[in-house]
Amino acid sequence: MRRSLFVSALGLTTSLSLLLATRRAAAFALPAIPFFHSSRGWTSVIPVRDQSATARAHKSSRKGGQYSVREGQEHRTSTRPRARETEVEPAARIQRDYPHVVLRAGKARLFLEGNPLVYGEAVHEVVGHVADGDFVEVVDHRGNLIGKGCYNSQSMYRVRLLWHAREKGEALYASSLEDIVARRVSTAWATRQALGLPNAETTCFRLVNGEGDKLSGLAADVFDKVCVVSSSSLWCERHKDFIIQGLEASLGPAGISTVWRRSEARLKQDGFVDPEEALRPAIDVKAEARKEGAYVWAKEAGLKYKVYPELGQKTGFYCDQRQNRQMIQSLSRGKRVLDLFCYTGGFALNAARGGAREAIGVDSSALAIETAMENARANDLEGHATFCKSDVLVYARDLGKTGEKAFDIVIADPPKLAPTRRDLPRALHKYLKINRAVFRMVASGGLVLTHTCSAALTQDPEEFRKMVTQAAHDVGRSITILQVSHAAPCHVQSPVYGESNYLTAMLVAVF
C-alpha cells in the first residue's frame, strides 16, 4: 500500500516537473518578428517590450546573434515605462510602404497620449519623399506607429496629427486623409447635437474647434444656414476640397452651405503665403456689406444677430461668449451697464434684454457699431441699448473728464493682445492700461467682467489674476473674485492639449 502511494506521488511529481518545464520553454520561445526597410536599414517593428524581453532571454547572443540589439540602439533592462509608450493597436504596428516621420528617442510618449502637434525638435528624420501638406505616418525611433497627420517643413509644428495609434480600429488606421476628415466632422456634428445645438433659440455655434475636435488648424462656425470655415494651417489650404466635402456630407441634409475664410496671420506663421494675395485689390468693407446676400441672421439665446460671413471679424461673430452673455443678462436688471470692445453688441444687448436701466456699447469699428445698432432694432431694444464708435481708452478718458456717474457693471473683452508667449510682456502692459480704465469707471459695490482671449495668458491663470489685481490696486480699488469661466461648451477642448483653452472671463466685485 505504501509502495503504491509512493509510486503515485512520484508520478505526480514527474508530471508537475514536465508541466513547469514546458511553461518555461514557452516563456522563452521567440516570437515571429516582422521587419520593415527604412533609410537606416532593416528594422524590427515588434513592440519595445517584446524586444527587451528577447534581449534578456538571449544575453549571450547580443554580439552578432540573429536577435541582437543593433549597434547604436539603447538596450533597456526595464521595460515598464517604454511599454506604456508603445501600447498601440496590433494593426498599428504593421508598417506599410508609406512616407513617415521618425521621432527622436524618448519623444514619443507625449504624442501617444494624444498631443496633436509634433514640433521640429522632436523629429529625428523624414523617410521617403515628403512635400509640405502631405499625409504621413509618424513612428517612434523603433518603428512603432504613433499616428498619422500632415507634414509641414515650414512650420514649427512639423506634423499636425489627425489620428493617433491608440484610437481603436484597423479600419481607421487604413483610412485615407479624406476618410479621417469626414469622420472627424461627423463626430463634431454629433457632439454639437448632443449639446442641443442648433435649436429654436440658438442657431449659431462652433462646429469644429481645432485640436478639440482633432482637426488642428481648422475652425468652423455655423450661423443658421451658413457654415464659415476659418483655415489657419497649410494642410487645410492644400486639402480644402476634402474638408468642404466632409462638412457638406454632415451639414448638407440640414441645408447648410459653406464659406471658406483664411486666417492670414496664422497661415503666414504656418509657412503658407498666397502669391496672389498681394495682387488682390483692397476691399471696401462698407460697400461690400450693403450687397445682396452679404449677411445672414442668426439667433443666440433668443436674440437675433446680423452676421457677415465674409466680412466680419474671425468668422463673423463670437460664439464663445454665449454663456457669459447670458450671465450678464441675469445680473443687469435696473443697472447701468457698459460694454467695452462690444463688437456687434452681444453683452449690451443681453444687458438690455435683462432689464438694464441703461446699456452702452463702445467699439472702434464703424461697421461693428452700425451692425450693433441694427441688432438693437431687430430685437426691439432700440433706445434700451445704445452704441458709440470710439477708442475704448479715449472713451474712458473723456468719461473721466465729464464726471459722469460710474457704471454698475463694466465688461471689457479686448482683442487678442498676446498671439504668442513672446508677446506676453508687451500685452500685459496693454491689459493693465485697459483694466485700470475699467476699474475707474465702475461704482463701489459694482461688478467687472474682464477677459483675455490670448491662450498664452489663459495658460497662466496666476499671471492673469495678478494683472487684474494690480490694475485695481493701481487706481485705489480692491476686488473679490466671484467667478472664472471660459468659452462656451461648443468650443470643445482636448484633454491633453491645454493650449486649446484660450478664453478667460473673470467676474469680480469692486470696492
Automatic annotation (TrEMBL):
<keyword id="KW-0489">Methyltransferase</keyword>
<keyword id="KW-0949">S-adenosyl-L-methionine</keyword>
<protein>
    <submittedName>
        <fullName>Ribosomal rna large subunit methyltransferase i</fullName>
    </submittedName>
</protein>
<keyword id="KW-0698">rRNA processing</keyword>
<dbReference type="InterPro" id="IPR036974">
    <property type="entry name" value="PUA_sf"/>
</dbReference>
<dbReference type="InterPro" id="IPR019614">
    <property type="entry name" value="SAM-dep_methyl-trfase"/>
</dbReference>
<dbReference type="GO" id="GO:0003723">
    <property type="term" value="F:RNA binding"/>
</dbReference>
<dbReference type="InterPro" id="IPR029063">
    <property type="entry name" value="SAM-dependent_MTases_sf"/>
</dbReference>
<feature type="domain" description="PUA">
    <location>
        <begin position="99"/>
        <end position="181"/>
    </location>
</feature>
<keyword id="KW-0808">Transferase</keyword>
<comment type="similarity">
    <text>Belongs to the methyltransferase superfamily. RlmI family.</text>
</comment>
<keyword id="KW-0694">RNA-binding</keyword>
<feature type="compositionally biased region" description="Basic and acidic residues">
    <location>
        <begin position="71"/>
        <end position="87"/>
    </location>
</feature>
<dbReference type="InterPro" id="IPR015947">
    <property type="entry name" value="PUA-like_sf"/>
</dbReference>
<feature type="region of interest" description="Disordered">
    <location>
        <begin position="53"/>
        <end position="90"/>
    </location>
</feature>
<dbReference type="Pfam" id="PF17785">
    <property type="entry name" value="PUA_3"/>
</dbReference>
<keyword id="KW-0963">Cytoplasm</keyword>
<dbReference type="GO" id="GO:0006364">
    <property type="term" value="P:rRNA processing"/>
</dbReference>
<dbReference type="GO" id="GO:0008168">
    <property type="term" value="F:methyltransferase activity"/>
</dbReference>
<dbReference type="GO" id="GO:0005737">
    <property type="term" value="C:cytoplasm"/>
</dbReference>
<dbReference type="Pfam" id="PF10672">
    <property type="entry name" value="Methyltrans_SAM"/>
</dbReference>
<dbReference type="InterPro" id="IPR041532">
    <property type="entry name" value="RlmI-like_PUA"/>
</dbReference>
<feature type="signal peptide">
    <location>
        <begin position="1"/>
        <end position="27"/>
    </location>
</feature>
<dbReference type="GO" id="GO:0032259">
    <property type="term" value="P:methylation"/>
</dbReference>
<dbReference type="InterPro" id="IPR002478">
    <property type="entry name" value="PUA"/>
</dbReference>
<keyword id="KW-0732">Signal</keyword>
